[in-house]
Amino acid sequence: MRFSTSARCLLPRFVASALFALLASVAGTASAIDADSEAFFETKIRPVLVKHCYECHSAESESIGGALWLDSAAAMRDGGESGAAIRPGDADASLLISALRYESSEMPPDAPLPAAVVDDFVRWIDAGAVDPRTKTAGVSPRPAADEIDLQQGRRFWAFRPLTDFRKSLSPASKAAIGENVIDHQLDTQLADRGIEPVGTAPAEVRLRRLAFDLTGLPPSESLQRRWAESPTEETWVQIVDELLGSRAFAQHWARHWMDVARYADSNGSDFNATFHEAWRYRDYLIDSFDSDRPLDEMIRQQVAGDLLPAATDQQRHDNIVATTFLMLGPKMLSERAKEKLILDVVDEQIDTVGRAFLGMTLGCARCHDHKFDPIPTEDYYALAGIFKSTQTLNGESQKYVSTWNRVELPTTDEHRQALDQHRTTVASLASQVKEATQALQLAKESENNGIVVDDREATKIGDWVGSTYTKGFIGSGYVHDNNTNKGSLSIEFRKRLPTSGRYAVRFAYSSNDSRAAKIPVTILTADGSESLIVDQRKRSDTPPWNELGTFQFSADQDAVVTIRNDGTDGYVIADAVAFVSAEQAEKSDKSRQAAERIAAAQKRLDERKKQLDAAKKNAPPPLPVAMAPRDLSTDKIADSPVHIRGEVNNVGDAVPRGFLQVCGPGDASIETPAGSGRVELAQWLTDPDNPLVARVMVNRIWMHLFGEGIVRTVDNFGTRGDRPSHPELLDALAIDFMRQGWQLKPLVRRIVLSQAYVRSSEFDPQADATDPENRLLWRAHRKRLSAESIRDTMVLAAGMLTPEERTAPVADKGVLVTANNAITKAVASGIDQPVRSIYLPVIRGYLPPLMTALDAADPDLLVGRRPTTNVPGQALVLINSDDVIRWAQQTADRILQSESTWEGRLRAAYRLCLSRQPSPSDLDIAEHYVGLSQSLTDEELKGRFADFVAAIFASTEFRMLD
After folding, report:
1. How far is CA 472 from the centre of its chain?
2. Minimal CA–CA distance to 347: which of 381, 322, 371, 317?
3. What is the distance between the alpha carbons of residues 193 and 134, in angstroms, rounded to a whole number?
4. What residues have CB less than 8 Å from 621, skipping those under 6 apart?
5. What is the DSSP track for 621-640?
6. Model pTM score
7. How far apart are CA 743 and CA 686, in angstroms?
8. Are 844 and 268 in contact (CB under 8 A)?
9. What percent of the chain has pLDDT over 90?
10. How far is CA 932 from the centre of its chain?
11. DSSP 8-state secondary structure symbol assigned to residue 440
12. Cα separation, 150 vs 232, whole angstroms
């Protein structure tokens, strides 16, 4: 325990919750799985069962292996001869998992499934094995695609056109409603049910709720004072507008969408590659919400931005970066069956687009018609043609490991010129370094071999071929005759020697059996011409040098060695020729001269290397790139065939690229797509006649402010999802949302200025008896703060929070986030960094334990609504976290420096951490806990005060919004 051991009684409610956590036996939190667990089953579990298990374990099987059916929920629980196949909540005790791991029986028998697929089954079972298949074993499957009744499907509420109930009202009724459609509709339904809503929440509660809902941060102390001094409607409106205009609003609401976009800074899965450029998408979202970019424009940019026209470089930049949305999903990059990998990537993109914008689980139609919604598998492959015609993957980062497409972003002419100049400078300096290196090597050769003439300095006649294949050469390489053009090639090594005298002549070449055995060599000496025959098959005792003899040379004429390929029967090699003085008296002098030459060459090399290093260090920023898709070339764009049962090699007829038939404007097929079809898809999604998208977006916004959506299953508007509690209100808000330009801030403003938003969370037993789930919003829902808000509030209270960080959070990572693809604390998220949580890296496979305990979104999944738990284990994690303890100490130190009295310090702790003033009883209990009535030293009191702040951080009140 990290608290002081005294002061055990009469703890305030926040201390009591923390102490309860320490005494509780529950130390963990529920595992986070997609809130829409049916969608997880349909996309991750059912396709595997259909492909690998139904052949032997379904109603379609000729014989049932082990008397085990796997084609219904009941059959899997009942099991076969060996017992129940699954134990919901306990994967390790489930026979199915044992079989998939090849620990008992081996399923499937041909080959084990990939580890990632087995992990999906483990997660599914541990989360309760939600399985919507209600048929019993032995019942034949549902009708085929052509039996789906689309006309009947269009009668379902989600697919009906948007309807404005206000059109049927009288002018007087319309005027009475005005802009107050929210309270009108909510109050009408409450009155119809005989429910009286509770009153308005206390002023401090309202302000804290508003600040966290809009910015993810508590209200500042100055804002608290201003609201306390003037809690009027006029002040409330001013505060709302200020918070909407803050950068913090954009950061908070960008994080909401990042949950939907399954944002991450690494790939996860089998090859946890680093997404070095994902942060650009994060900043695009923040900038977009800050400027209140229309959401329909954002949707079009995220689906097809790279194909949209742009009037400016900035618009082009935003268009491209927005499409990172399509790239962020986890991928099995090391999958060797690349066609399967492409289909899996396409499937993930279809599922994401479907749930993010349409609230539909389209991925369920990959292997078969959708089991619950009027979406035939042909509709799935109409969309698949669009995304298969889009390039997401591009090449390999290493053997068998695919990598993703990157697109250059616009930059200034000055930047491009600076990059071009830098490349030229570096190339020139690199060339100079190479030349200086060669000069140094030649100088060192000269020390032992006299005066060296390299093949680069020689005069060549004919087509000699340069090479570096055989190592051990002099200078930068050597030349050979390629064993052709015999009799037409010659090379002449010429040098004026410094003094007359006798010199040993040496010829450098590499020897092997493919070389010529009779190479004619002529040496021009002071005495005339000498002719020799050289055998390059014969190995030298001092390779690569071979002695040709000692001859008299004059300082008045050039020494010349000529090699020809006349009459040769193999490769003729010419590397270098050396002239070595034979006079012992000159040896010491020549050694001194050689040493000077070596020193001078070394100096030149060092200078050039220094210049090259400096140039590289002073490089301009690299050309910006985004991880973004592009359309395939025209000859590769095509419609997709239906893949029967989702199998790569089992194909049916091609389906024209298009959209869902059950809803939306116009024909579901694209008549003449200009490219992949993504532009047409983006236009179809945001067409005012598409009933789904505006409903889905409005519902998401409503959910973030009220804690529950009008449709509670925010990612599933299908038949297995919830029905809207207020369908007329949802349609009215969706219609107004589109009319007002699809802008977020006006809708948020409208909601938070309603009477419904500021209601108390106070309990009313009579209302609860009629509406126990509070679907009619007779009171406010108590909401758990997000993991990011909890962390950011602690860092802010400590006085450490930096408002913004426009950098790549994984810039220091290589191709993989860890050297061996192992997730360790070395990859840690940097949770101790003094920035808002949105700027911390999101590493798939390693989320910080603190954030995981507080239900941070799983980046492997699209998460429209996070699971929100409030369990003792959360307080336990908070109270024992080294980071939280440090932030509590820093907060305590900050308060101790700013406040001179203990009452002032305790009040400040409440204001900073809980955004309220303490009651007299709160102060009494806090004073007792800190030990003000005891004989303690200043240091002991300060330690108790830090414990007190930590207890607030661990409290339920700190984590919750009333």
Report:
1. 48
2. 381
3. 34
4. 415
5. PPPPEEE--EEPPTTT--PE
6. 0.75
7. 13
8. yes
9. 62
10. 50
11. H
12. 53
Angle at 647 between CA 642 and CA 653, to 5 degrees: 20
Which residue reads 């830098």 in tokens? Answer: 422
Distance from C-alpha of 389 to C-alpha of 629, rounded to nearest angstrom: 10
Residue 506 dihedral angles phi and psi, to the nearest 5°: -120, 145
Domains of the chain: 13-29+880-961 (no CATH), 37-141 (no CATH), 203-244 (no CATH), 294-408+632-687 (no CATH), 450-582 (2.60.120.260)
Residue 389 near residue 675 (C-beta atoms within 8 A): yes
β-strand pairing of 576-581 with 390-391? unpaired
- 527 token code pair: 């005495």
Distances in Å between the Cα of 778 and the Cα atoms of 186, 188, 772, 865 are 8, 11, 10, 22
> Which are the contacts of 879, defined by CB distance < 8 A and separation ≥ 6?
2, 3, 18, 21, 22, 950, 951, 953, 954
Give the residue from 945, 813, 862 showing the smallest Cα distance to 279: 813
Task: DSSP for 12-32, please give it.
Answer: -HHHHHHHHHHH-S--S-PPP
Structure tokens at 880: 């024992």
Question: What three-state secondary structure class fits 251?
Answer: helix
Closest CA to 451 of 576, 599, 596: 576
- Distance set, CA 634 to CA 111, 340, 677 (Å): 38, 22, 12
Two tokens at 958?
Answer: 């700190």
Q: What pairs with residue 459 in β-bridges?
A: 492
Question: DSSP class of residue 722?
Answer: P
Helix (H, G, I), strand (E, B) or coil at 784: strand
For residue 274, the cross-strand partners are 266
Q: Is the pLDDT of residue 305 over 50?
A: yes
How many Å apart are CA 324 and CA 629, to the nearest integer? 8
Reply yes or no: is the peptide bond before residue 309 cis, omega within 30 of 0.
Answer: no
User: Residue 363 carries which DSSP code?
Assistant: G
Predicted confidence at residue 261, as pLDDT, reads: 98
Please report, for residues 352, 382, 720, 854, the alpha-carbon distance to residue 713 in angstroms, rounded to integers and kept in the order given: 15, 26, 9, 21
Residue with tokens 């948007």: 162
Q: How far apart, in whole angstroms, are the C-alpha atoms of residue 333 and residue 815?
A: 12
The terminus-to-terminus CA distance of the chain in angstroms comes to 29
Confidence class of residue 590 from pLDDT cuts 50, 70 and 90? low
Largest pairwise CA distance in the chain: 127
- Token match 């998208």: residue? 693
pLDDT tens digits along 907-917: 999 999 999 99
Residue type, 644: I
Q: Place 446 in a pLDDT band, splitting at 50, 70 and 90.
A: low
Q: Which helix H or strand E contains 290, and what residues bound it?
A: helix 279-291
Distance CA 760, CA 779 (A): 6
- Distance from C-alpha of 173 to C-alpha of 102, rounded to nearest angstrom: 69
Instruction: Give the alpha-carbon dihedral of 466, 470, 471, 472, to 10 degrees.
Output: -80
pLDDT for the residue numbered 826: 44
Question: Which single residue is written with the structure tokens 């963990």?
Answer: 28
Backbone angles phi, psi at 76, to 5 degrees: -65, -35
Cis geometry, peptide bond prior to residue 849 (ω within 30 degrees of 0): no
CA 187/CA 181 separation, integer angstroms: 10
User: What pairing do the DSSP bridges indicate for beta strands 490-495 and 401-404?
Assistant: unpaired
**Alpha carbon separation from 786 to 783, 803, 853 (Å, rounded):** 9, 18, 11
Instruction: Look at residue 136 and tell me whether its pLDDT is greater than 50.
Output: no
Inter-CA distances, 340 with 119, 335, 417, 559, 758, Å: 19, 8, 43, 69, 52
Average pLDDT, the chain: 87
Q: What are phi and psi of 521, to 5 degrees?
A: -125, 135
Which residue has tokens 């040896």? 587
Question: Tell me, what DSSP letter sits at residue 109?
Answer: S
Closest CA to 785 of 218, 221, 295, 72: 218
Query: If residue 642 lies in a helix (H) or strand (E), which one and from where to where?
Result: strand 640-643
